[in-house]
Amino acid sequence: MNIYYVYIMTNRSFTPYVGVTNNLERRVLEHRSRRPGSFTGRYHLDRLVYFEETDDVTVAIQREKQIKGWTRAKKMALVNSVNSGWKDLAGEWFDDQPVDSSHGLQPAQNDRRGSL
Fold it and tell me: Is it the case that residue 92 has pLDDT exceeding 60?
């Protein structure tokens, strides 16, 4: 069975980015690599502050589109409902070394997912 994640990444300015993936750890690393020219690279989105999971890819894509259509205030309220401190939920998933985007991704240290 596959698991799909709808997630929100943010930065110091609390700019929300909503996405969907089937591998949350890999996707967080991709965001943190700050690829030149990408939205996440331009806005330095490096904090995972919210995620949901489902085993239905169609549900995940529909939910992503739904949340993307919300106002910034409504997205912030969603995050606040489960993560009022806006803690980085992936903060302990990886080695403390920075990601070097020129050399690809670094492996995850372990799998510590919180439940929301």
Answer: yes
Q: Residues 65, 68, 69, 74: is their CA dihedral positive or negative?
A: positive
pLDDT given for residue 77 in this prediction: 97
**Does the CA dihedral 88-91-93-97 come out positive or negative?**
positive
Rounded (10°) CA dihedral 99, 38, 45, 3: -80
Domain that holds residue 84: 4-88
Q: Is residue 82 part of a domain?
A: yes
Indicate whether 114 pLDDT > 60: no
Q: Distance between the two ends of the chain, CA-based, in angstroms? A: 20
* Distances from the Cα of 11 to the Cα of 25, 39, 94, 115, angstroms: 17, 12, 18, 21
Helices assigned H by DSSP within 1-116 = 24-32, 39-43, 57-68, 72-82
Residues of the chain with pLDDT > 70: what percent? 76
Q: How many domains does the chain have?
A: 1
Q: State the CATH number of the domain containing residue 83.
A: 3.40.1440.10
